[in-house]
Write a structure and sequence with these properties.
There is one protein chain. The chain has one domain: AhpD-like, CATH 1.20.1290. Helices cover about 80% and strands about 0% of the residues. The protein is an all-alpha fold and about 120 residues long. α3 runs antiparallel to α4 and α3 crosses α5. The model has no long low-confidence stretch (mean pLDDT about 90). The chain is extended.
Length: about 120
């Protein structure tokens, strides 16, 4: 299977653009850095588990930049292909579950809107 992105080069491309963004929106980039730093300060889970969580979130949020960064970090912290696949399995299950739950919200919206139309015609 051919990769859609040059994964090994992608981090450099992202960082160049982040540097550019930091020049025009420094507080935003600084704020992101603070969030990222805060998320790695505790050691209750350990860096490998945090990176596995990050990969699962990256998949559910469809962030290629996060995928490339956190895949590298997961490998750096000793994550195996099997551990990564297990984390991704959780992401897949939850993403499908989220679609199921949010489908019920569509039904709620449909009911509310059709009730409103029915009340307006009475």
């Amino acid at each position: 299977m051919n990769s859609m992105l040059p994964w090994n080069d992608y981090v450099g491309e992202i960082m160049a653009r982040v540097k550019e963004l930091a020049q025009v929106a420094p507080e935003t980039v600084k704020g992101f850095g603070a969030l990222d730093s805060a998320a790695s300060k505790t050691n209750h889970l350990g860096p490998k588990v945090r990176e596995l969580i990050a990969l699962a979130v990256a998949v559910t949020t469809r962030c290629d930049g996060c995928i490339t960064v956190h895949t590298g970090e997961a490998i750096k912290h000793g994550a195996t292909k099997e551990e990564i696949a297990e984390a991704l399995s959780v992401a897949i299950a939850l993403n499908a579950g989220a679609a199921l739950v949010y489908s019920t919200r569509v039904l709620d919206a449909y009911a509310a809107k059709t009730e409103a139309v029915g009340a307006a015609t009475k």
